[in-house]
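Re: that chain you flagged

S.,

Sorry for the slow reply, it's been a week of failed gels. I finally had a moment to sit down with the sequence you sent. For the record, here it is as I used it:
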Amino acid sequence: MRERALEHLQTVMLPFWKSLRDDEHGGFYGEVDFNLAVHKDAPKGGILCARILYFFSTAARVAGDSDSLVYARHAYNFLRSSLLDTRRGGVYWSVDHTGAPLDTTKHLYCQSFAVYGLSAYYMAGGEREALDLALKQFRLIETKYRDTIGYWEEMDAAFRRGPQNRLADDLHVARRKSIQKTMNSILHLLEAYTELFLASGDTEVGEALARLLELIDKKIIRRDNTQLEVFFDENYNSLEDIHSFGHDIEASWLIDRACEALASSELTDRLLARDKEVCDSVLARGWDKDSLWKERVGNTICRRKGWWEQAETIVGLLNQWQRTAEAEYLRKAGLAFDFCLTRLVDPRPGSEWFAELGECGEALSGRGIVDFWKCPYHSGRMLFEIMRREIE
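Prediction finished late last night. Pasting the structure tokens below so you have them in one place:
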């Protein structure tokens, strides 16, 4: 798997994403449609930029691709000069193709990925300014977003709370106006703080990371350990019966990684045991022979298969195999890896991964190859985790 992962990184993913560097306006082009047309005038999202920063930084550090550090610095410069609000702090949701502010919302999700990308860039190149910016972002999050229970998410440019949460997408509109907090934002804040703690060793970051694990333990994971709740009101009361298979198997290894970063305690030991149950619940309810369905909403299972769910499945299964030595986890990880490289990777020259497959296995043309969310983060990180875990 490691050899195939490295080959795929070198022959498909790195060439594709390097080709999207915008040398005129900075950053990387924000859209490639299903027909592989590059939209050079598309908006550039803060999340996409931070994820590209993570991708190239980690390719340099884990895969030894020194050229990637040049591309990481290109993403870093754009994040710092165009997406960061230098006056009030925080990262914008999006800018236009020239770098001018477009959507000045400062969602927690976007702030988290800025911390994540900056931490990865510091670990790859050792640039102290990047770590200082990551720590500044951390303090902004703790000051502006943290409340007595957890974290508020939707904020405008002046850090005033929004009326609803944009992460409640169009698939879940029934309670959209009631949704204020999400599992998704907490999960990615967790990974951001984990990477920042590993990069900095900062005591305050470690304390915040422990608080996040407490929140996940008490409010996010169901008491029966079958799944993570998805959408919440401001007090973390669950609002919909949804089982997001991809998020849950992603959470199972990201929580483990946070626990490892903090070292053993009663809380981390308890969460490590719960993570295995969460992973097993995903396999029992969402596994389809060689891949993972999207989610269950009420009594209905959505049988589409997204690129990111499959990538996270591979890492989650490898993580459980390493923890338990149970061969079935490794067997399923191999099946999912084959599924990704043979079904989700776009065979057309000059392309990358399809975003999603339909119930009959067809590539869905409604999503492009690159957009605000379609990025090299999940799939690239899966390749890096295969390489990193093999090395360790």
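What I noticed first: The chain has a mean pLDDT of 95.

Talk soon,
D.
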